Every structure is written in structure tokens, then in C-alpha cells.
From TrEMBL:
It comes from the Bacteria. Pfam families: Response_reg. Residues 5-121 form the Response regulatory domain. The modification 4-aspartylphosphate is found at residue 54. One of its GO terms (biological process) is phosphorelay signal transduction system. This is Two-component system response regulator. The keyword Methyltransferase does not apply. Keywords: Phosphoprotein, Two-component regulatory system. Coiled coil: none annotated.
Length: 124
């Protein structure tokens, strides 16, 4: 599985580090972006197998970023999993309608996250 790349778009360094440690321990290569703008720049040259997307980002927010990624022919097929602290009723539906393939709430379940990622990478 060393050729499996996961992009983590998360502005919180502690959350990014947690995801990096969990994913690297499972053999994934991790591409990190702290902002939506940074993620878009990275996607010009790299095509991850899956994207973990925080919804609350500075600048371009996660929902807008998802729409931009899904509107681009080069990146529209990449599965996106929203990783967010949003837990209000209706938020999950709104996020999934934006184009996300799945929704994971924070705090992240470090046992579950790799299983969810593997499920969506295998679909692709």
C-alpha cells in the first residue's frame, strides 16, 4: 500500500499531526495542506487517492473547496471525506450533498479512520 496517498486538509496542527501519525502507521503517504488555497495548489501537481477535508478552514472554507475539487475534471473522481466538528442536525446531509463521499466527526476515532479510508480507496 505504499503508493496510496492521502491528502489531509486541516488548519489545526494538532489534528493534522494526529492524522499524519495514524495514516503513516498504516502505510499511507500523507500530503498536508493547512488551507484551501494550499490544497488547490498541491492538487495541480499531485493526485491523492483520497482527501480528508476539514470543513472550517481559513480563507476558502471546506464546502467551497469540495465544490471546486468536484468541478475540476482532473480531481472530480478523488473521494473526499469530510472531517469536522460540525455535529448539528442536518450538517451531515448538507456536507454529503456538496459532494463528499463520507463524513467523519471530530474528535477522530483513530481506529475507525483507516478503515473508512480503505473502504473509499478500494471503490476508486
Amino acid at each position: 500500500m505504499p503508493d496510496k496517498n492521502v491528502m489531509v486538509v486541516e488548519d489545526n496542527e494538532k489534528n493534522r499531526k494526529l492524522m499524519r501519525v495514524v495514516l503513516k502507521s498504516k502505510g499511507y503517504a500523507v500530503i498536508e495542506a493547512a488551507t484551501g488555497e494550499e490544497a488547490l495548489n498541491l492538487l495541480k501537481n499531485q493526485k491523492p487517492n483520497i482527501i480528508l477535508m476539514d470543513i472550517q478552514l481559513p480563507g476558502i472554507d471546506g464546502l467551497t473547496l469540495i465544490k471546486l475539487i468536484k468541478a475540476d475534471a482532473m480531481t472530480k473522481e478523488i473521494p473526499i471525506i469530510a472531517v469536522t466538528a460540525y455535529a448539528m442536525k442536518g450538517d451531515e446531509q448538507k456536507i454529503l450533498e456538496t459532494g463528499c463521499d463520507a463524513y467523519v466527526s471530530k474528535p477522530i476515532n483513530t481506529q475507525e479512520l483507516p478503515l473508512i479510508i480503505e473502504k473509499y480507496i478500494k471503490k476508486g
